[in-house]
Every structure is written in C-alpha cells, then in structure tokens.
Design brief:
The complex is a heterodimer of chains A (174) and B (202). Chain A is of the alpha+beta class and 174 residues long. Helices cover 12% and strands 28% of the residues of chain A. Chain A has one domain. Chain A is built from two helices and ten strands, in the order H-H-E-E-E-E-E-E-E-E-E-E. In chain A, the strands form four sheets. A three-stranded antiparallel β-sheet of chain A has the order 9-3-10, with no helix packed on it. In chain A, strands 4-6-5 form a three-stranded antiparallel β-sheet, covered by helices on one side. In chain A, strands 1-2 form a two-stranded antiparallel ribbon. In chain A, a hairpin with a 6-residue loop joins strand 5 and strand 6. About 51% of the residues of chain A have low confidence. Chain B has 202 residues and is mostly helical. Chain B has two domains: 100 residues, RNA polymerase sigma factor, region 2, helix turn helix motif (Rna Polymerase Sigma Factor, Chain: A, Orthogonal Bundle), CATH 1.10.1740; 91 residues, Winged helix-like DNA-binding domain superfamily/Winged helix DNA-binding domain (Arc Repressor Mutant, subunit A, Orthogonal Bundle), CATH 1.10.10.10. In chain B, helix 2 runs antiparallel to helix 3, helix 2 crosses helix 4 and helix 3 packs across helix 4. The longest helix of chain B has 36 residues. Classes of the chains: A alpha+beta (174), B mainly alpha (202). Chains A and B meet through helix 1, helix 2 and strand 2 of A and helix 2, helix 3, helix 5, helix 6 and helix 7 of B.
Chain lengths: 174, 202
C-alpha cells in the first residue's frame, strides 16, 4: 500500500461477518420480492411459472427449491415433472408445494423463520439448513391441520403431500 | 458461470437471482458495515439485493462480476438515506452534510484506531482536505481494493475522473505527510537545541 494512503487504510473498520440469522432474514425478504414481482411476458417467452400467492403480513414463499451442495448454496426452481430426489445434507433437496384452499379460496404459503411455529400454526415436515452453522428455517402452516387443511404449505424434502393437501409442484435442486 | 449469465437467466427465471445473493451477500454486508456501521449493515445490504433484483434487466451483461454494480446500488441507498436523515436533522440543528460516507462515522473509528493526538490531528487534516467525491473513490480504492475501472462502475463516472480524483487525493495526502515529516524534523531539532551545544550525548 502506498504510504500516503496508509492513513486511510488505518481507518478501515474491522470486518464482522453477518450472522446466519441476518443472512437468513434478508434471504427471506428477497424471496418475498421475487414472489411479488409482476409476471412479465415477452414475445416468444414462455409463460412464467411463478405462482402468485397472497402474502398478507407474513413472508410468502412458494415453489422454491434450495440446493445445498459442495459447500455452496443455490436456489433453483423446477417444474412438477422434475423427479423427486432423496436428500441428505450433501444431496439435492426436494421441495414440494402442497395446496389447500384458504378460507377465502386463495392458496397461501407461509414461511416463519425460527425453530418453533407460532401458536395456531403447525410445522411442515422438516426444516432446512442453508449451510453449516446457519439455523434451520421452519415452514409452518398458518392454521389447520393436515386433516383439516386451510392453507398451502411447503413440504421440504418430500415429494408427497400430507392428507388433504394437493400437490402444486415438486421442485428439485440442481 | 459468471454473474452476467445468472442475471440474464433470472430475467426469465427470477429464482436464479438467489445465486447472486448467495455469492455476494457477505461482501455487500461488510461493505455496508464499513460505511454505515454494523447496526444498519444488514438492512442496507438486504435492500441492495431487493433493488438489484428489481433492476436486473438493466444489468450490463458485458460485466462478469456483479459486485461493482451491487456496490453502486448500496452507495445510492446510503446516500439517499443520509440525505433523508440530513433533511430531518437540519430541521433540528441545521447540521448538514451531503457526504454519504459520514465523516463523523469515520472519525468515530478513530477513537479505537488512532492512538495519539498527533495521529488524530493528521487524520482529521487528511479528511478535511478531501472533497467528498475524492474521499469516496479513495475509500473504494483503499478499503475495497477496487480497480479504477470498477470504481468508475460503482460511482458511475468515467475512469479518467476516478484517476483524477485519486491522483488529487494522493497529492493531498502526500503533502500532509511531507508536512508531518517536516514538523517531526523541526521538533527533533528543537529538542536537540534544548540540551545546548555541549549536551550532545554519544
């Protein structure tokens, strides 16, 4: 470093890496933006597959798949024809979106960050850790049970929907 | 696969943009932390990716790394927020600063990092003598280790302007350094003369 610039270099604050929770929160916000983006269709472009869901006051996410492999993390979306795959921490992850009509007829997916569902919500079948050291993200239904479904849920690492839910799509990480 | 390929694919498949987040969030977080502090770094970094996602169709596909583009978005967010806060604070105490890299926050860093009063004086003199635009490119150059071309992308000015600003900033800092050396030399001479001609120790 140029000695004249050393005085500026000295002012550089020490790096403090983001926590897993911070990263997870912002990842979820980006998800939300992706979901809320208006579907655009250009000439000769296939109809977009993204389904629109009502977010309400909660974060909304649907039809997303996450891949964990080789230490890296990726997000991918596949259509329902993608074959489900077995999972392990180092294997591709399958995410299945299952739906049931809500009270107003709309399908909703809710994602709640943390390790416990809030009162009135029930956990989906599994949690997903994005990387080693990061907390799992728990997917919860807003209400109802698998025997009396009201909302759509994401079933992580499974291609089978609970009783009472119908499969919207099954996605596998690449 | 370069960022430009991922971003282009996200035009059709938005979820592809998640790869940009995974690749650059950490760096953006640290970048924001250096500019606005740890308390706000998360929010700003997160906002960068939301805006980048919204603006992804405007990304220059000739650029293989999205990082300068993301830095530029971050600086815009920080600048706008600083202006907003500035408008608020002006109403209270008329303290105005258009500098989005807050000199105050820089000087707060000095408390921990600068040991002596002389050093503090030097740093304040260095900062005071730089224009905001010069300080900004200097921070991108020294702190972020960006090339002139990358800095030009971040601050959206021609490369020649970046070169000129850094040159001017260097010249200013070099002049200060020379003044400091001269002052030290003078101090040493004065100290030497206090002992008198016969008190030199061998």
């Amino acid at each position: 470093m140029d000695p004249d610039l050393y005085i500026i270099e000295r002012l550089r604050p020490a790096d403090v890496e983001p926590t897993a929770q911070e990263m997870s929160r912002q990842r979820a916000l980006l998800f939300e933006s992706m979901q809320n983006e208006p579907v655009r269709r250009r000439k000769n472009e296939p109809i977009h597959r993204i389904r629109r869901h009502r977010a309400g006051g909660l974060l909304c996410i649907a039809g997303l798949a996450f891949s964990i492999g080789g230490g890296g993390v990726g997000w991918a979306l596949a259509d329902s024809s993608a074959p489900p795959q077995a999972s392990s921490p180092s294997m591709p992850v399958t995410v299945t979106a299952c739906s049931a009509p809500g009270s107003d007829g709309a399908s909703i997916t809710y994602i709640v960050e943390g390790t416990m569902c809030e009162p009135g919500r029930i956990p989906a079948t599994n949690t997903l850790s994005f990387s080693s050291g990061s907390p799992g993200i728990l997917y919860c239904t807003i209400s109802g049970t698998s025997s009396s479904p009201q909302d759509q849920i994401l079933v992580i690492d499974s291609s089978v929907c609970p009783t009472g839910y119908s499969k919207v799509k099954s996605t596998s990480s690449s | 696969m370069g960022d430009e390929t991922v971003i282009e694919s996200s035009w059709i498949d938005p979820d592809q943009f998640g790869k940009i987040f995974e690749a650059h969030f950490n760096a953006l977080y640290l970048f924001c932390q250096r500019r606005v502090g740890r308390a706000s770094a998360e929010d700003v970094a997160g906002e960068v990716f939301v805006r980048a996602f919204e603006q992804r169709r405007r990304y220059d596909l000739g650029r293989s790394s999205a990082r300068p583009w993301l830095y530029g978005i971050a600086l815009n967010i920080i600048r706008n927020e600083a202006r907003r806060q500035d408008r608020q604070s002006r109403a209270v105490n008329r303290v105005a600063s258009e500098l989005y890299v807050s000199r105050c926050s820089l000087e707060e860093n000095l408390i921990d990092q600068i040991g002596t009063r002389q050093e503090l004086t030097d740093v304040i003199a260095a900062l005071d003598g730089l224009k905001d635009a010069e300080l900004e490119v200097l921070l991108l150059y020294v702190w972020e280790r960006l090339s002139y071309e990358e800095i030009a992308l971040v601050v959206d000015v021609p490369v020649g302007t970046v070169r000129s600003r850094i040159h001017h900033a260097r010249r200013h800092l070099a002049a200060l350094s020379q003044q400091r050396d001269d002052a030290e030399l003078l101090t040493q001479r004065c100290k030497g003369s206090e002992h008198g001609p016969g008190s030199v120790h061998y």
